[in-house]
User: Fold Inner membrane protein YrbG from Rubripirellula obstinata.
Amino acid sequence: MSIITAWCLFAISAVVIAAVGSRMTAVADRLADRTGWGEAIVGATLLGAATSLPGITASVTAAVDGKPQMALSNAIGGIAAQTMFLAIADLTYRKANLEHAAASLANMLQAVLLVFILSLLLITMATPAIAFFGIHPVSPLMFVIYFAGLVMVKRAKEYPMWQPRSTDRTRTDQPDEKQTPASQDWGLWLRFAGFALIVVVCGIVVTRSVSAMVDHHDWLGESAAGAFMTAVATSLPELVTSIAAVRRGALTLAVGGIVGGNCFDTLFAAVSDIAYRDGSIYHAAATATSSSGPSEMTLIAATIAMTSLLLGGLLYREKSGVAGIGFESVGIIVIYLGLLGVMTFV
Assistant:
């Protein structure tokens, strides 16, 4: 593949991913209302998983191609980028700080779950390599923790032991449509599945094109390419869906889509470990970057810091701050830009 072709395919696929992502938001919001699941749960599961499809496709493709750094950087870099996207969505909501308006216990619990899984990944990469049949034991454990966390979130929504205080700027999840039998929702489900298939194909194209760029450009490393090219391109649905959800007034869906999607995205690392057949992908990536500057461990640590700020914002619920956004959004943007500089130039 020529370098010009690679750049063209990358750009076209990114645009398609962004365009389809906006359509998925509207369908997901309607399904949240018609199924009775609620915006936070749909954001964490259906919308979060579907908009993550191009990302997981990119990570698995990179792992199969023998590029462990790109696979992990795409997985974690996507979480960092999507958290930053939430700060951008905050800028588009002028009535109040988004984290104040989108009060939800479910979103807070998902943020806690995300910090826990990311911390587990950091511990895994810092400890000696272990693998059974080429898979690190933490990979299947991540699936167990993720689904157990979803059960906890669902129970908290149904039987809350704590509730955020409602203010004049709080926007709660109010269904726009009545709950309907599942048999009447097949059209929506089919549309959602069609959109999901499109973003999967585009995710493969993005990975192949970026891999070609890494091979052509000596200055472009796997870690930076994964964290800030494939990760951002495949995360564009989250940016589009978040802004679209905010404009529709579905604020809980906007926050839940990002935080829930980020929790799902941690599984990219586990699936990539399974797809990578030369041992533990975590230690393969750590070994490859041990003498070449900031590694995926730096990326994970920064992402934990960004998520902690987000959780703090959801708990503190500042009504407005600098530029009309909360302290957490300002901090998230600063950390992400600093991470971009460190990963690219150090």
About this structure: The two ends are 29 Å apart (CA to CA).
